[in-house]
């Protein structure tokens, strides 16, 4: 059958599908899933809610964007492994409580990287590199702890296949720079430095034999991320998948390109022509998108720059919810998401937490409208 | 390079005194009495110098950076993790990557870019961070206490760590690449162990300078000194040993209280002095310009609450 | 006795309960159309961020050019100016036409919403 041989990413307008179909097709129990966005900005919450609706569990969550989606998934008991850098709810709760509790009680195993270490992994994934060079994390306990190795998930099976398709054979490796730090010296043309840094002790580094047993400039190598499915939110996506993220990118572009499948939820599906008139503004080329889902306001309760701001009142109240008994939090989340996204958006905003205006539903969503000149809602009330 | 600092309060961002009085009345705060969070932000700003690049970690450090720009370091450029350089911070961002942090900046991209294009390339003079634990050499722990692994990978039969913190986030790379690591912390003995259980961020020398435990031995080629701003005093790393020393103490704080709240024998710096109390101009500025809704400045420490009762 | 104000005021259990059986007051179809129009206006406003400052500057540079015409010495220079201005007219006419049509419709929609409000209140 000719139809069956067209790769998913070449299926043009057939990539446009409903939220439930996209999740049903691409998000499988136990898969390695990578949510985009950062903290509250451009998090694909509609897709995250749909995962809860469809109760897809045993997830291996890999991400570089703070924990808001992982918090909901851990609260609903859907996560078994996390590969990340930061599990706080920035500015709202120092550590996302459902995530923290799950790690402390042994439900979830976590592998830690730093933001740059993980960021470099996404760059390696983006460019198809075998690894990326990292010069931080050295000298710290991040390099000394490897959860997935301890769990026996790294390396090859007896038949020669990788034990886990989304877990590299090692967390990191360290080599000596074959160029002896040539690329790292201050740009001392015509005398004087050309960076803002004042300190540079490469000569001390060269003398050390740490990590490799040999003298030289130490460089850590980190493997790419290779998630099975990445979910992102982009403001506009063309009807064949050309993606334009407007404002803050977050780690989305790299995470989308690194994945086997990428689902892009968007505020509006537009014509390809609309976006191709200025191709430099587009951030992901069309073949990296496998499913397109139009969900206006689907980034609620987060912020989608230029369209709407985060719902501060919701997050403030949520930090009281997630400190309850695990079963209570689970029940809350499953009630919160309702049966489908439009019902959710028509009902839940403004409901179940105090707001100044008392408005609910889609009217409430419009109270969060951003000013297109700023990207956020100036003067948004953020009471403590 | 000569250090330039704008120390003339008349050149700082202007705040009208009448507006300030009305603001304090509205918020129910004493116009002259500073809070702990305000002290930390002001002290942090005082550590910077002009024409530098200041990398803002999440939370109160952002307020410290904003304060620096409105006072001592007006020409300094703030870096935030969404590839942000030199934003116009009209409202306090609650995240290092939200639209408020990206307004009118020079470029706006992503995290990999921030740490590459700015930090790795040498544009990170000061890295301003917070931390959960700080040890004798200024290393910060923001990862875990009571073991690292969870059940599947654990050896001692426990289900997981006693307390899991947020993790490195940007803290490790900021500490790895900055010339000077600046951390803002509330000081309690249990949070200032002699040796961190887990080193997340090597803010200072990491270990005794000149030994195989120092940061350079492990391959970090920048940095080496740190200033830790606590709510009791300011620690600076010794240029000889790398060990934190009590360098400046806030007015009215007993040095013994400082020593009782670290878990090692704290040395006093040779040039130890009393910190000049926050000025009226500084308090005005940090309140009205940096965080008028008191999202971060409104927080109170246990010590502060206890002192009030 | 003066209560110490907590950093985060505690929210009552009652306030945290979800409402039951809430019938939406507006149809989903209507909301979808409202959102779609709002989003299109935002998309144009967003593009305008790029135009805002140059658009304010164009009158200045045009005024300078206009004054300069009286000093031009060569016909070929005038030909260049003519071509550039004709190109400008084409671009700016496109902008004007699109904007004028939308602007008129926005006025009509405002009037329609007021009329509909009166009807609903009857």
Secondary-structure blueprint:
The complex is a heterotrimer of chains A (384), B (309) and C (122).
Chain A: H1 19-26, E1 32-35, H2 45-53, E2 59-62, H3 68-75, E3 79-84, H4 97-104, E4 109-112, H5 115-127, E5 132-134, H6 147-150, E6 173-176, H7 202-207, E7 218-222, E8 229-238, E9 243-244, H8 252-258, E10 261-270, H9 272-276, E11 291-294, H10 312-321, H11 326-337, H12 341-347, H13 361-367
Parallel strand pairs in A: 1-2, 1-8, 2-3, 3-4, 8-10, 10-11
Antiparallel strand pairs in A: 5-7, 6-7, 8-9
Chain B: H1 17-27, H2 36-46, E1 53-56, H3 60-70, E2 77-80, E3 84-85, H4 111-120, E4 126-130, E5 133-134, E6 140-141, E7 144-145, E8 163-164, H5 171-177, E9 180-185, H6 215-218, E10 225-230, E11 233-237, E12 244-249, H7 255-260, E13 267-274, H8 280-290, H9 302-308
Parallel strand pairs in B: 1-2, 1-4, 4-9, 9-10, 12-13
Antiparallel strand pairs in B: 2-3, 5-6, 7-8, 10-11, 11-12
Helix pairs in contact in B: 2-3, 2-8, 3-8
Chain C: H1 28-69, H2 75-121
Question: Can you tell me about this structure?
Answer:
The complex is a heterotrimer of chains A (384), B (309) and C (122). Chain A has 384 residues and is of the alpha/beta class. Chain A has two domains: 15-130 and 226-384, 3-Layer(aba) Sandwich (Glutaconate Coenzyme A-transferase); 132-156 and 165-186 and 203-223, no CATH class. Helices cover 27% and strands 15% of the residues of chain A. Chain A is built from 13 helices and eleven strands. Chain A has helices at 19-26, 45-53, 68-75, 97-104, 115-127, 147-150, 202-207, 252-258, 272-276, 312-321, 326-337, 341-347, 361-367; strands at residues 32-35, 59-62, 79-84, 109-112, 132-134, 173-176, 218-222, 229-238, 243-244, 261-270, 291-294. In chain A, helix 3 (68-75) links the parallel strand 2 and strand 3. In chain A, helix 3 packs across helix 4, helix 5 crosses helix 8 (252-258) and helix 12 (341-347) packs across helix 13. The longest helix of chain A is centred in the N-terminal third of the chain and has 13 residues, at 115-127. The N and C termini of chain A lie far apart (60 Å). The model of chain A has no long low-confidence stretch (mean pLDDT 95). Chain B has a single domain (9-308), classed as Glutaconate Coenzyme A-transferase. Chain B has nine helices and 13 strands. In chain B, strand 5 (133-134) and strand 6 form a beta hairpin. In chain B, helix 3 (60-70) packs across helix 8. The model of chain B has no long low-confidence stretch (mean pLDDT 94). With 122 residues, chain C is mostly helical. Chain C has two domains: 27-61; 72-122. Chain C has helices spanning 28-69, 75-121. Mean pLDDT of chain C is 90; it is low at 1-7. Chains in contact: A-B, A-C, B-C.
